[in-house]
């Protein structure tokens, strides 16, 4: 990776900010060099810890974060914010905020105390990564976009809290002026980063309340990292959710940075890929077990003398009937099988290890379902034309029945049997057959 300096932009979104910590982990692993980091709201808080460049302390902070380290809850105010204010426009926010400002609001003293332990203003001012943040001066209704050199010494934490000042929080004042969350001006401050003369920008964005400015400059390379799954609510500080969001940010960023591949899973194919290469070569060739090969060709509706080219073409055609169309065939087959088997998703899998994960999960399911065939009605259901009971079966049921069905079925029974298989189930079945074939070579 070139040491060209990138500008990192972090959006606001409360507890969803854990996702940004995962992105930072991926940036470090992929050797992206940062020249500046600018954030809004929780993005500003994360920008500060990134500029400080103390990864271990930052991860420890987020990993152990609870709502009690952020605020003292006032449930009535929280409900008002979620149910009413979040549905209004800026004027509604401002009026509601002003009405409640001087009486109630969530006390964020715990967050200030946490930042006092976490943030070293001196280290940030000396850092080669320049810090920037966005807030809104509610007193004059003007936005404030500030780089670290624009913030008076000793007031960094004040301005970080000003950038994060949601209307439900107690008012944030600096020198007699009241400030509001920077998301009400620009929740994704790419334009501000461009003003700092960065032409290569990494922008971390997820759904959140706030404004989004159009990017004015066209001659800029913007790498956008979005979340592939829901991140929870703005005030959802559940520890399991935070850990999941950190991992999701890490994996989604790795995919954007081309360090992993996959549509559903996160698969690294560049190293430790000897099994994967053998699988690619083996795919479409005759299976060593004639009975299983015959069943496989039946699933693909192919004659018994079909060659590798015909098998691969049939697999591609079947793949087009799934959400994985236009994706590489070998990788898609592994992903479809993994999803059907319920292999854990949020892991960075070296591709050969993914084969192990698939077989481990398959063996686990087989042990849990050893008594399936003791129910005589299961096979009968599969061999009954127009039976819809199969929709209650999970993949392992299909797999066990598929292996147990004899090879001398009548044409009518075979047609009834094969009609129960969706494209995903058929592809998963064939994938497992070829995995075993690959490992037994």
Automatic annotation (TrEMBL):
<feature type="short sequence motif" description="GXSXG">
    <location>
        <begin position="39"/>
        <end position="43"/>
    </location>
</feature>
<dbReference type="GO" id="GO:0016042">
    <property type="term" value="P:lipid catabolic process"/>
</dbReference>
<dbReference type="InterPro" id="IPR002641">
    <property type="entry name" value="PNPLA_dom"/>
</dbReference>
<dbReference type="Pfam" id="PF01734">
    <property type="entry name" value="Patatin"/>
</dbReference>
<keyword id="KW-0378">Hydrolase</keyword>
<protein>
    <submittedName>
        <fullName>Patatin-like phospholipase family protein</fullName>
    </submittedName>
</protein>
<keyword id="KW-0443">Lipid metabolism</keyword>
<feature type="active site" description="Nucleophile">
    <location>
        <position position="41"/>
    </location>
</feature>
<feature type="domain" description="PNPLA">
    <location>
        <begin position="8"/>
        <end position="194"/>
    </location>
</feature>
<dbReference type="InterPro" id="IPR016035">
    <property type="entry name" value="Acyl_Trfase/lysoPLipase"/>
</dbReference>
<keyword id="KW-0442">Lipid degradation</keyword>
<feature type="short sequence motif" description="DGA/G">
    <location>
        <begin position="181"/>
        <end position="183"/>
    </location>
</feature>
<feature type="active site" description="Proton acceptor">
    <location>
        <position position="181"/>
    </location>
</feature>
<feature type="short sequence motif" description="GXGXXG">
    <location>
        <begin position="12"/>
        <end position="17"/>
    </location>
</feature>
<dbReference type="InterPro" id="IPR050301">
    <property type="entry name" value="NTE"/>
</dbReference>
<dbReference type="GO" id="GO:0016787">
    <property type="term" value="F:hydrolase activity"/>
</dbReference>
């Amino acid at each position: 990776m070139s040491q060209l300096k990138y500008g990192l932009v972090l959006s606001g979104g409360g507890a969803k900010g854990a996702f940004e910590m995962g992105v930072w982990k991926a940036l470090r692993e992929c050797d992206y060099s940062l020249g500046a980091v600018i954030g809004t709201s929780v993005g500003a808080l994360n920008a500060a810890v990134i500029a400080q460049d103390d990864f271990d302390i930052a991860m420890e902070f987020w990993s152990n974060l609870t709502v009690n380290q952020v605020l003292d809850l006032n449930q009535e105010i929280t409900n008002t914010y979620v149910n009413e204010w979040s549905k209004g426009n800026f004027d509604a926010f401002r009026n509601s905020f002003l009405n409640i400002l001087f009486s109630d609001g969530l006390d964020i003293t715990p967050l200030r105390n946490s930042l006092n332990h976490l943030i070293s203003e001196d280290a940030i001012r000396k850092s080669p990564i320049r810090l920037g943040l966005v807030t809104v001066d509610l007193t004059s209704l003007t936005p404030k976009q500030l780089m670290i050199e624009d913030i008076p010494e000793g007031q960094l934490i004040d301005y970080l809290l000003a950038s994060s000042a949601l209307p439900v929080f107690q008012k944030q004042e600096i020198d007699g002026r009241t400030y509001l969350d920077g998301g009400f001006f620009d929740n994704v401050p790419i334009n501000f980063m461009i003003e700092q003369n960065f032409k290569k920008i990494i922008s971390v964005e997820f759904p959140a309340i706030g404004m989004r400015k159009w990017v004015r400059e066209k001659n800029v390379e913007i790498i956008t990292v979005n979340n592939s799954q829901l991140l929870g609510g703005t005030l959802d500080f559940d520890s399991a959710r935070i850990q999941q969001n950190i991992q999701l940010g890490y994996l989604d960023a790795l995919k954007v940075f081309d360090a992993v591949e996959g549509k559903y899973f996160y698969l690294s194919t560049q190293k430790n890929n000897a099994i994967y290469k053998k699988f690619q070569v083996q795919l479409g060739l005759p299976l060593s077990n004639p009975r299983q090969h015959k069943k496989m060709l039946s699933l693909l509706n192919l004659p018994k003398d079909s060659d590798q080219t015909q098998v691969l073409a049939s697999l591609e055609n079947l793949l087009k009937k799934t959400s994985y169309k236009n994706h590489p065939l070998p990788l898609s087959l592994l992903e479809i099988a993994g999803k059907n088997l319920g292999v854990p998703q949020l892991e960075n899998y070296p591709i050969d290890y993914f084969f192990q994960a698939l077989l481990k999960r398959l063996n686990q399911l087989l042990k849990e379902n050893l008594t399936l065939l003791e129910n005589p009605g299961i096979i009968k259901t599969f061999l009954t034309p127009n039976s819809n009971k199969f929709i209650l079966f999970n993949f392992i049921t299909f797999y066990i029945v598929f292996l147990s069905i004899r090879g001398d079925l009548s044409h009518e029974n075979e047609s009834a049997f094969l009609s129960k298989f969706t494209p995903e189930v058929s592809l998963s079945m064939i994938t497992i057959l070829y995995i075993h074939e690959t490992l037994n070579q």
